[in-house]
Amino acid sequence: MPAPADTAHPGDTRTLGFLRVTTHRGAARPIVHTPEAVARPYLLLGLHTTGRAALDRRGTTDVCRPDDLFLCDGAEPFALHQSEDFVLHLVRIPRHALALTDRQVGALTDRPPFADGPVAPLLGGLLRQLAAAPHQSSATALRLSGSITELIALLAAAEDLGPGSKDHGREHGREREALVRRLRAHIDAHLWDRNLTPASVAAAQHISLRYLHRLFEDQGSTVGRWIQHRRLEEARRELARPGRGDITVAAVARRWGFASASHFSRSFRAAYGIAPSDWRDGRTRPSGQTAGSLDV
């Protein structure tokens, strides 16, 4: 699928695991993204390594400086008006590959370009290194794509973009956030349990099922979706560990609480655009699939 539109200068596009990376460089000009109809929603992570630009999106304009990062919703238009020679890297990330709530994604995509904080320098440094050495083995590319999505999740957490409601007082909001952290910790500790359900989570924390659902709805998520996100993330990490080529997909599915290997495989492919066996073996696409047919 095409990268953000710049028909005169389309940029250099390559696949990195389940990500799509496009590099634009040259003299001052606008880079315009026009949304397209796609099967899987996605985000665009931008790293502006050289030059200055004005980022227009959602009716606002922000300055984009060297080394700034920004995130945009791929379903929304935006434009970068470059004012001088520039280098820009845009990373296309499947929305389902990010274990983030809708609220967290909205907060990240609303944020002006930035380069500060504990996580942004790590993420920016990794993207710069990838751009300098774009040719990676399939196995390495898959691991790096996973690292990028994990840093984005960490960025959301580090910037305190998690749960909370503007309709509640600050003290009550802190109590709710502490409760959600306990709920997530309980879920993480019981991902292996096939009997892990919203009802069992609510009972363990001595709250009503209705209140549990409301807490996750306030974050733009559901309990079931969060459980599946976390199971997929842990399964993906296990399959990516060195020396795990002999482990079966069925064994990983059982270890992380999936009802069956077939259900796990369907969920994994829907989230990452690749079969779990191909991820484990370091193949960016199944044998016989052409490079241009990977749908991310």
UniProtKB/TrEMBL annotation:
Presence of the UniProt keyword Transmembrane in the record: no
Alphabetical UniProt keywords: DNA-binding, Transcription, Transcription regulation
UniProt KW Cell inner membrane keyword: no
SUPFAM superfamilies the record matches: Homeodomain-like
Domain HTH araC/xylS-type: 181-282
SMART domains in UniProt: HTH_ARAC
Matching InterPro entries: AraC-bd_2 (IPR035418), AraC_XylS_family_regulators (IPR050204), Homeodomain-like_sf (IPR009057), HTH_AraC (IPR018060), HTH_AraC-typ_CS (IPR018062), Tscrpt_reg_AraC-type_HTH (IPR020449)
PANTHER family: ARAC SUBFAMILY, HTH-TYPE TRANSCRIPTIONAL ACTIVATOR RHAS-RELATED
Protein name: Helix-turn-helix domain-containing protein
Protein source organism: Streptomyces cellulosae
